[in-house]
Give the backbone structure.
Amino acid sequence: MVTSTSAKKHLKTTLLVPELRKKYYAQTLADSQAGKKVAWCSNNIPSEILEAMNITTVYLENYATVCASKRLSSAFCRAGERAGFSQDVCGYARILMGYILGGDDLPEAPYGGLAKPDFLIVNSYSCDSRMGWFTTMARTLDLPLYVLDSPYQPVGGCTDLDNVAYTESQLRGLIAFLEEQTGTKLDPARLRQRIELAAKANEIQVEIYEMRKHVPSPMSAGDAYTVVWPGMYLIGTKECDQFYEQLRAEVRERIASNVGIVPEEKFRLLWSGLPFWYNMALMNYFEEKGGVVAIENAFFRHLPGLPQQDEDPVRDMALRSTMRRGYAGSIGERTDLTVEIAREYSVDGVILSYNPSCRLFYILQPALKNALDRAGIPTLALECDMADERTYSEGQVKTRLDAFIERLLAR
Amino acid sequence: MGHRVLTEIQHYGFGWVLDLRKDGYNIDTLQRASAAPPWLPVERSALYVAGIDIGSASSKALILEQDRVLAHALMPTGAESAASAQRVMEIALRQAGLGLNDMSYIISTGYGRIIVPFADEEVTELSCHARGAHQLFPAVRTVLDMGGQDCKAIRCDERGRLGDFAMNDKCAAGTGRFLELMADVLQIPLNQIGALSLEATGEVRISNTCAVFAKSEVAALVRQGRDRREILAGLHEAIAARVHTLLRKVGVEPDFVIAGGIGKNIGVVQRLEARVGLPALVPPEPQIVGALGAALFAADRVAEGAVRRQRQPIA
C-alpha cells in the first residue's frame, strides 16, 4: 500500500513542470482535433526532427509515469494483463496496452486521454522490451511503425565511421517515413535551428548536474526526476531552454546562499535505476532523517555536447549523437560510470532500484552492486516496479530504508 | 507467574525444541534460567532498560539490569500487535518484579516496532540482530535471522554494527510460517519436524518453495504414501537452498550465527551448515536476539543521556 505519492519539491522552478506537462498534453489533443499528424513515440527518439516537421509527439513512457503518479497504474496494468501480457512485461507497456485495449472498469485516463495516433516511432536504443511493445501496438492499432535502430554505443561515444554512417541512414530513413506520412518535406534550416536549441538545453543541463556536486546538495532527486521532463519531451523548443535557464539560476542562487535540501546534511545518496513513480515521496523520507538523494544515474547528463560537426544537419546529428552517448554501452561501462558518479557526488550510499519489469536497469544492478562493494560504497537493493504499484510494500520498503539509514549513520 | 506464561506459550504451539545438540534444553529449563542466565554476559552498566521485538509471528520483550538480563518473555503476536506488545512487556516486567516506570529507556524493533505505544525509540530488527548476536558471540560477522515471515541475512563488523543485508522479498519460503504450514499438512508437531527430517534415509525433491503450492505438493506426496521423514527432508533442503542464496548475496564470513525461531529446527540448521561449510552458532534462545539488541541500544541511549519520553503505567 502506498500512503503518499508525490515528492515535496524544494525548487520553485520544479513547480512549473506540472503546468508545462498539462499544457503539453492539452496541446496534443488540440493539435489532433485540428488535423495535425500525431506520432506515438518511445523515449530517445530524435525529437528535433519531429519538431522541425511540426509533428505532434506523444511519449508513451512518460504517459505511463503520469498514470503511475496519479495512482492509476494498477488498474491499467490489470487491463493489460487481462489481454494476456504477463506481469513480467514492462510496466509501462502493460499500462499502455491496458489503456489501448480498455475496459468498463478503467478509471478516467489522465489529461483526458491521449491524442489518437497516426503512426508510431520506436528507438531500439537502450531497451529491448519497447521493441516488442511498439510492434505489438502497431499490429493492434493497424498503424505504420518506424523502428529507428541504434547500434551499440560505448558510454564515452565512438568515432567509428561505419557506426556514424549507419546512424545517419537510420535518421534519413525516419525523415523519409515522416515525409511520406505527412506529405511535407523537411526544411533543413528548421532542423538546424532545433538542433541548436536542443544543444543549448543540453549544455545548461550538464552545467546543473555539475553544480549538484556541491555539498550541501542544492537540488535532490525528488526535484531532478521532475525537472528532467522538459529536457526529454520539449527538446528543441525555446520553452525548454528558458526552463533550464531559470532552473540554473535558482540552483546557482541556492549554492551561493548555501541553502541545502535539509538543514544539516548527514548523508548523501545516489538512486540507481528508475524511481517508483507512484511513490516519489520516498525521496523526502530520507530528508526526515537528515539525508538527501543527491544524484540519480537514470537520465544522467555528464557530457557537454559537441560543436557543429557538419554543414548537413542530418549528418551533423548522426556525428554528434554517435560521439556522445549515455546508456547504450556495455554493462561494464555503465557500471564504471555509476561508481564514478558515486565518488564525484560524494555519496555515502547507493539505493539500487530493482525494477523487475525494467530489463534495461534490472540487469545492470547486480554488476553495479559488486562494483560498489569493491569501491567500499554501501548499497541497498529495493525490489519494486517503477510503474506497477502492486509490487510495492510500504512496511518492507521502510524497514529496509530504516536499516540502511541506521547503517550509514552508525559509520 | 512464570508457569502460567509457559502454558500459554506452549498452548500456541511455540514449544520448539531449543537445540537438540545441547542436552537438557527445553522451555522449562530456559525459563528457570531466565532469572539469571549464565549464558548471557552483558558488560554494560545501566539502570533498567528494555528491548521489545514485535515480530510477525511472536512478540518478545527483554529487560536488562546493568550487566545482566533480568527477564525475557515471548508470546504469539496475533492480530492485535499493540495489545501483544503491552502483554509481553507486562509478562517480562512481572518476571523481573518491576514496573514500566522503572525502565530508563525502551527501544522497539521488529515489523511492529511502530505500534509499541510505550517505546521511546525504534531501531530496525536488522541493526538489533547484529547488535544482539554480537553481544552473545563477539566474533560474529554473519547473522541469519529466520523469523515468522521474514528471513534476513545480515553482515556486521567487529563492533557489531550493521553492514550489508538481504531480506526475502514477497515470499514466505524459508520462514517460520512455511514450516508451520508444512507441519500442519503432515500432522507432525512443529518441534519435531527438524529432528525427524534427519532420520530420513532418502529425500523427496520439493520443487515449489511457494508456501501455497508447496502445501499442495506435500499433500499429494502424503497421498502417494511417501515417507513423511523423506518429505520433511525435502522441505528442509528446499528451505536451506533458498536461504543459502540469500546468504550468498551478502557473503558469509565466520562466525556464523543463526537467530529466530527456525534456529531451533536442527534439520534446517544442519543442512545450512553443510551448504555454507561453516558451523552455525545458535543461541540457547534464538528468538530473543532482536529484543536483546534493542535493549542494548536502549542502554547506549541512557549512557548518552537520553531520557524516557513518557512515564505512564501500561493501560
Remarks:
- The beta strands of chain B are 48-54, 58-65, 68-76, 105-109, 121-122, 142-146, 151-156, 162-167, 256-259, 280-281.
- Chain B has two domains: 2-125+288-303, 138-282.
